Amino acid sequence: MRVAVAGAGPAGMAAAFRLSRAGARVTVLEAAAAVGGRTLTAALDGVRIDTAAQLFSSGDTRMLALLREAGGDGVAVPAPGRDALWRRGKAHEVVYGSVASMLGSGALPLSLKLRLGAKYLPFLARHAADLSTDALERAAAAGLDREPIGAWGERELGRDFVDLLVHPLLATLYGMTPEEASAGFYHALARGGAALQILTLRGGASTFCEVLARAVAAGGGQVRTGTPVRALRAGADGVEIGLDGGAERFDAVVLAVPAPVARELVGGSMPELGDWLAGVSVRPTATLAITTDRPLGVRWFGLSFARGESRAAGALCALEAKPAGLVPPGRGALVAFPLPHTGERLLGATPQEALRALLPDLALPFPGIEQWIRAVELYRWPHGWTLFPAGYLAHLGRFRAGRLESEPRLALAGDYLHAPTVEGAVASGLRAAERVLGVGR
Length: 441
Prior knowledge:
This protein has helices spanning 10-21, 61-69, 99-104, 110-126, 137-141, 149-156, 159-173, 183-192, 207-218, 259-266, 271-278, 340-346, 351-362, 392-400, 422-437; strands at 2-6, 25-29, 41-44, 47-50, 56-57, 76-78, 82-87, 90-95, 198-201, 222-224, 229-235, 238-243, 246-250, 252-255, 282-292, 302-305, 313-318, 332-338, 373-386, 410-412. It is α/β, with parallel strands linked by helices.
């Protein structure tokens, strides 16, 4: 069976690896110059920069299993385990995944800690069966998808809950505001992240896709970068893919591309699926990387800002806190994630323009940092964030019902079909692989 996989991010590479292991002849077609998608690791001034995705967790079970199966045993290692929240002019440290650390941190006022212990943790326990990132449609069925978490949180737990917990998490990792994100989605994140070990990858975040790409090639497949898919047409004898300079025919195709791109490719021939894809929202963004001539000298890896504490930045990541080899000794590197709507505006900026916009926030934890900077780069993500607003979990349930993919030779993959995480992308890729393998059985 000859199968094309369009897209070499985590979803596409997971599908390609599973298909290759099942005996399919796999061709991966990636528009960018390298594999990785939003797990891309790039070189800047002698530093390996994780340009978007930064950390993983022990809960990423599918991703970790594929990594080991593809020969990457030992690549995932424990991260330093510290985060920080900037509040009232100070970075308050916490330990990733530890409720006890969060409750003991000076980042949160005592009144909020009491409300969390008395009300929110019992709420999560009562709804445990409805709060799984593997089945977000359950939260919709339980009535938890009808309003944004900002409205729910302010009503049930107070403004501090929204400003100090909800806003930093959503703005940093999901590109959403509390006024947008589904309450059910946030509750599922809170339930799933209560006791996780945080991991990082030796060599950078793109190591996952690189290891799988090497395994696909070793199995006789191809990984062709710089090869965008321009069109596709499904028929009784296969699927024809239009490429620059020609077309190729395959027995089946996995479309592991952003939802707007998938809609352009399938909307005309599969109108019901195209209409569903039109209901998927993405937000463009950009990330800014800088290298410095000295270490940043902090114990934490990621610093999030409480709402109102920053002008343009949502979070800062000190890359020297990752395993040895990414940042040379005696140097420093920082990746800045802008606030959701700031990221949209920075998409068309130059690196220096983005630096000027973010510098006041960089200088809060690092006074005088402008004197240490050696190099600056801006990484642009036109389809950067997949949004899960109120009502989206019910929309996702329509896809999970299994009636929209009417063409058996074509399967979709992407985090928008599962959860907006690397693990969600991998899960969708594995599902797509099983779908197209069914054609050849």
